[in-house]
Amino acid sequence: MKAQLPAVVLLALVALLVAVLFLTTLKTDSWRLPIVASGLWVVIALLGGVIYPSVVQALVVNPNQKDREAIYIERNIVATRAALGIDGVIEQEVSFGALTAGDVSDDITPLQDVRLLNPGSLVDRFRNDQGLKSGLTIRDLDIDRYEVDGRQQQVVIAARELDLGTIANKGWQGQHLISTHGCGLVRAPANRVETNGRPDYDEVGLNRPELYFSEGLSGYAIVGTSVREDACPSQENPGAYTGNGGVALNSIFRRMAFALNFLDYNLFGSSAVDDTSRILWIRNVRERVEAVAPFISFDADPYPVEVEGSVMWVIDGYTTSSRYPYAQNADTRQLPANSGLAYDFNYVRNSVKAVVNAYDGSMAFYIVDPADPIIRAWASAFPDLFASMEQMPAGLRDHLRYPEDLFRIQTDAYSKYRLNADAFFDRKGAWSVAQGPSSIPRTAVATSTAADGESASAAPADFAEEASSARFVPYYSMFQAPGQAEPSFQMLRPFVPFSTDDDRKELQAFMLASSDPTTYGRLTAYTVSTAGVDGPATVAATIESDSRISAQITLLDDGGSQVLYGDLQLVPIAGGLLYLRPLYVKSDASAQASYRFILASYNGNAAFGSTIQEALEKLFPGFRTDVGDVVGVAAAPTDPGAPTDPQTPSTDTPAELLAKAQDLFEQADEALPDFARYDELNKQARKLVEEAVEALGG
C-alpha cells in the first residue's frame, strides 16, 4: 500500500509517456527519446516495483509487523467474513457433564437419530439388493429426510438409473428405443437396520417411476416409437410416454438433422420412428443445467427428491468471484476433485437451486439468496430463467440441503477468521477443523490410500498453518443441538484448538449448518467450555485400542472380508456427550458391506454391540432401553432356499434355485466369524445346488 501502489501509479504514467513518444516517431523519425523512456520505465519497474517495496517490508514493516499491518489484517478479516458468508455465524457456549444410565434412559431421542447407514460404504449393497434387474443400477446414495412411522427421520435414498452397459439388447433399438429410462427410488431409514445387517428398504411411491433424466445418463433415447419400451418392474400397465421432453421428430428435416448430429443413420432410416416420436438428449442432469446456465458453477452431487409422486433432481448452484477487495482466497484443497467449486475464488454464494424433472427434463432455477449481487445481475439479464423461492413447491422446499462443499470452505475459513486482528496475527484462540478419523482400521491404513484425506488449510503469508493431515468430513444428520427443543436436519463439523503439529485433539467447538426450511442456511458454532472433552481423533484411537474391540476387528478383517467404519457421530444427550460409530463388514467375494456393530465411546471408555442398547449397557451398567435401531426379523435363511418339508420337492426352476443358493453363500461369507451360522448357511446353500443339479438331470 505504502510502497508498491505509488510505484504502480508512476509506472502507468511513464507507460503513457512512452506510448506518446513512440507515436511521435511517425513525424520526427527519431527513436532516441522513446528508447530512453522505455529504459526509464524498466528502471522504475525494478526500483519502484520490486526493490523499494522489498526494502520497506524488510526494514520498516517486519520489525514492527503486528502494528504496521494491523489495519490491513482487520480489513482482510472483515472482507473475508463477508465474502465467504461467515459474517453471520452465531456463537453459543455449551458444556458437557457426566452421564449415568438413568440420564441416558430418560433422553433416548438423540439415540434414535444415530445414523447406522453410511452412504459411501453401502452403494454396492443397495445396488445388489435393489437393482431389481439388469439394465438398472444404483450409482450414488444420498441422505435426506422423510416422514417414516409418523415422525421425520433421516433416510438413505437412491435412484435406480439406467445402465446401458448391462442391458440385454445391445442393438440400436435396445440402446435407444427399448432401454430408455431408470426406474424409481428406493430408500431406507438411516437410523436402523434389519437383523441380518441389511437396510430396511422401502419403495418410494411414484405416479410415473420412469427416470428419463438422471445423474449418470449419457447418449440419447427416442420415445413414442412403435417399439415397446421396457417397463419398470413395479408397473403392470406403464402406458406410452406422455411428457413434453426433448424434441418432436415430426419432420424428415428434423430426423435428418439429428442423424447428422449423432452420425447415426438409424435415426433417419428406422421405420419405428414416426411423427409422434420425441428424441431426448443431454440426459445427465448436471450437464443439462450447465448447458442452460453456464455462468453458474454447479455442485457435483445432484440428489433426487420425491415431490407429489414425481422425481425431481436438485443441484446446488454457486456464484463466485475472485475480485472481492481485501478478501482471502478460499481454500479449495479440502474439496473433492469433481467439486463444482474446485477453482480459485474469494467470494461465493449458494445462490441458486436448480431442479430437473426426471420424467420430462423440464428445469427450474430458484434464487435462494436474492441478496447476492451477482445472481441479481444474471436475473436482470435473463428474467425468464429464474424464479423466486416463493414459487418453489413446498414439498420440494422441505428437502433442500445446505451444500457440503460450501460448508467445508466456510468451516475452514471460520476457524481462523472468527478472530479479531490482534489475535489473528498470533493465532491466539484459533481453531482447526478436527482431524479426520480413518474409515478403515489402522492395521489396514499402511496398505490403503487415504480415502478421506484432506490437506491443511491455506493461510496468508507469515502466518502459521496446520499439519497436512486428514480433516473431518462433514455429515448430514437429524441432530438435536444443546438447547434445541427437537432434532432437525443439519450438517455438522467439529473443531479442535489450533496447532501446527496436530498435537491438540480435544474438542473445542462444532458448527452446524441448518437445512430446516424455517432456519435454512443458519450457521451456528457451539463453543465447548468443558475442559478435556475428547475430540474425534482421540475417540477413534480409544475405540481401536480397546482390547475387546481390536480382537473383534482382527477376526472380522481377515479371511475374505474387510472392516469399514461409518461416520463418527457426536451425540449430545442428557447434558453429556457420546460418540457413536457404525462398523461394517465387506465381503471380498461379493464386494457388499453389511452393518455388524455399533461402536460407542464415553469419557475415555469404549464398547461395542450389535445394537445401541447392547453397546451402551457395557458403558452404562443398568441401561436397558431398546432404541429401536435393529428392527424386524430378517427372512429366515431357509426362506429363500430349501422348502420347509425336505420331502416336498421345490417348484423353483434350476436357475432360481441357484440364484437363491448364491444369496445364501454371500450371507454365509458376511456371517463370519460366526462360524456356526456360516456352516448352517453353507449347508442350506449346498442343498439348493444339489436340488438344482438333480432337476437338470444330474
Please outline what is shown here.
The protein is built from 20 helices and 30 strands. With 698 residues, it is α+β, with helices and mostly antiparallel strands.
What are the main properties of this structure?
about 700 residues, 6-stranded mixed sheet, about 20% strand
Kindly report the oligomeric state of this protein.
single chain
Q: What structural class results from the helix and strand content? A: alpha+beta
Low-confidence stretches: 446-457, 633-649
Outline the biggest β-sheet. 6 strands, mixed
**What is the tally of helical segments?**
20
How much strand? 15-25%
Taken from the alpha-carbon principal axes, the silhouette is globular
| C-alpha termini separation | 90 Å
Instruction: Give the averaged pLDDT, no decimals.
Output: 89
Give an overview in words:
- The protein is α+β, with helices and mostly antiparallel strands and 698 residues long.
- Among the domains are: 4-68; 635-698, no CATH class.
- The strands form 8 sheets. Strands 1, 20, 21, 22, 23 and 24 form a 6-stranded mixed sheet that branches. Strands 14, 15, 16, 17, 18 and 19 form a 6-stranded mixed sheet that branches. Strands 25, 26, 27, 28 and 29 form a 5-stranded antiparallel sheet that branches.
- Strand 28 and strand 29 (605-609) form a beta hairpin.
- It is globular, with a radius of gyration of 31 Å.
